[in-house]
Design goal:
This protein has 319 residues and is of the alpha/beta class. 33% of the residues lie in helices and 16% in strands.
Length: 319
Amino acid sequence: MLLPPTPSALRRAAAALKRGEPVAFPTETVYGLGANALDPEAVRRIFEAKGRPDDNPLIVHVTGLPMVRRLVRELPPAARALAARFWPGPLTIVLPKRSRVPDIVTAGLPTVAVRVPDHPVALALIEAAGVPIAAPSANRSGRPSPTRAAHVAADFPGLLVLDGGPARHGLESTVVALGNPPRVLRLGAIPVEELRTVLPGLVVATKARARAESPGMRHRHYAPARPLVLFRRSRAAALREALAVDPRALLLCADADARLFPGWRPVKLGATPVEIAHDLFDALRTQRRGSVLLAYALPRRGLLRAVMDRLERAATRVV
């Protein structure tokens, strides 16, 4: 059930959240499947609806630092500095949780992942409901994240979805854990280089460590409905051969790389890193007919580092 985010629709969605029912809503990153973060049974319904493993923690969405302080035991100077620079925005910070945060939200971890979304509908919904909202992406577990309300409706027919239009970033939030050193647990819409302007010692955690601590990292994610084969940048010739062998294959590549594969009309991915991040999940959900998606890797720098993380975890195999 797609609803424009009118005041009456927001009241209806807020009332559903208060009753313990899940609601989908837009953020600047992707659409979220939300529930009252302080209601364990409501949160359990999210896991059941998505088919999400219960060892995968959730991000709690709030309106600002006053709400954060009700959820965490401490807010260190580094967290306040990050919040001042990047909130509202696509940054999630992992902090020690208070006991009022149910264990199901944090997968039993002593920490909770929190962020302030930069989207008027998300903020208005949290305000109207009067509770923090725990929300993973609003897709079936393991599938590409939804960047449009129609994506959510396709995965969850009948679900109340506030339609806020296409997501601005199209890539999930960056997740940071503080400590010595502070660590990026999940690459996302804010590049590591930008975060280092506030936290110069920031490092990227190993994948094994990140999987143990961060939302959205423990299991395979983002898989499209058909196989996805990812070709390294050194394997352009192999990709051309694969395209020649299977005329029903779909090519996924950046606009600048399309010239390497003459005669093929690629699935749109974009020209700039911002466009590529924005269009990635749309491309993985393409409705064009084809037997397989053959993707050409991107340079691993800046925002494209996060895009490559998503492609690698979506891939059936890497060549």
